[in-house]
Amino acid sequence: MNTGSKFTFIDLFAGIGGFRMALNSIGGYCLHFSEINKDAINTYCTNFNESERYNLGDITKIKQLPNHDLLVGGVPCQSWSIAGRNLGFDDDRGQLWNDAIYLLSQSKPKAFIFENVKGLVDPRNKTALDYILKRIKDAGYFADYYVLNSFDYGVPQNRVRIYIVGFLEKSFYLKFKLPSTVKNKTRLGDILNIKPINAKINYQKDLFGETVLQRSMSLSNNNGYNDYFLFNDIRNGHSTIHSWDIVETTERQKNICHLLLKNRRKSAYGNLDGNPLSLIHFQELDKTITQQDLDGLVKIDILKAEEYRFKINEFQETNLNGDEKILLECKINQELIIDIAKSNRRVQINKISIFNTIKSLLEKNMIACIEVRYDFKNTKISTGLFGVNRVFLPSSNIFPTLVASDTNDYITTKNIHAKSEEEYKAKFISDIYKKDNFRKITKEEACKIQGFPEDFILPENRARWMKLLGNSVSVPVIELLGKAIVDTGVFEFEGEFATAQNLDKYQQY
Fold this sequence. Notes:
This protein is α/β, with parallel strands linked by helices. It has helices at residues 18-24, 38-47, 96-107, 126-138, 170-175, 188-191, 243-246, 251-263, 279-285, 291-299, 322-328, 338-343, 345-349, 354-363, 421-433, 443-450, 462-470, 475-486, and strands at 7-12, 28-33, 70-74, 111-117, 142-149, 160-167, 221-222, 225-226, 228-231, 240-241, 277-278, 303-312, 335-337, 367-376, 390-392, 409-411. Strands 2-1-3-4-6-5 form a six-stranded mixed beta sheet, with helices on both faces. Strand 1 (7-12), helix 1 (18-24) and strand 2 form a beta-alpha-beta unit. Helix 1 packs across helix 18 (475-486). 36% of the residues are buried. Mean pLDDT is 87; it is low at 79-94, 199-218 and 496-509.
């Protein structure tokens, strides 16, 4: 790399300046930024000692950009209604992707970087991604997309994003090489300033004396054990904490919970990924189970009773509203069944609230419940249990993706070691969970997890700084991508572009 290389850039959808921090560190000079969120603008200007008059504001209202070398931006994820539209650049200003590509076409910088959520590369969004790449090609650019995880580039965060990198000149596009992953990765313990202690684990052996490998969940696994505990009732594993592990329950109650956990995903009980079971279903699995047993688990908030199957009574169709008509079209043999209704395409497209519509039909005496089933009260994985989703140990390689809305993920600064899965889980419950030896990450830790300095100035309110950091990019990833672009020599190419030798700010457009 030519360390003397200088280039100018414009920072679209600037947020708190993740792109700017990265590009400044490799010789970039920011001419203007574009942002509309007041918190983000204040944070950006404070940390970069920037005047708000260099904020171009709402991208949909920018008519043209001054000459610059590199255009960057983390385009907000929006609906993919742009797919299939074949309008010219002068007319397609309605969607933010279109606005970004319009400005790219209008200003013709030497190169660009656009960042977006990994969902853009999902098969269901193939048409949208193809459309975006075609528009970029139509703008005169040679570009490709790359799916990168921030953990591979210097931060302990499982953050997978798509980066679209393009060049105006084909020769530089062909020279571009994706940066190599970082060998000495930063891990969660480094952020917490804790060095994990590797304990000797006695691995389980089979009848032939062979080591039984532990099945890992995702994110991080050392010495055969997961480095975080998942609080969840609908999954199982040696580091999964269930409601019945932390709520006082009898062995019989625990066994009933395990029975439901083992069987609720079987197709014999419905079409959904997880299906509630009726008393009859439980008794087919264990004839000793009684209604009193199920009621007891409902009382302690581990199970919930759900009205599941309904008989359709005679009624006047003129008394039905639109949602009720659609829901009743799901009937089979004059019965309305919840799993059939939830799987119905029209119900999904119209975003019909099945619970509210069922309630309305019951109040009108148009249906009557003929079967009640039971499921776990907590069935949403991301919510977790009792306000806790996951608790990460210092030995973990990574922390989950930082998101704008925050999560129920926690950390502990205490390591635990054990000689068996049972002891490992028991120690976590007794030494960490029940003693409240876990907490949420601090603002300073969150900054480092995103690659910002820990003294980066952010609002004091947690919801505000979490939103700003969660919406940002991981600084080290952009820095390495920027270096890879610089290494092509594109900014040494003489053309009709802004140069860093003239660093006078342009007048705001």
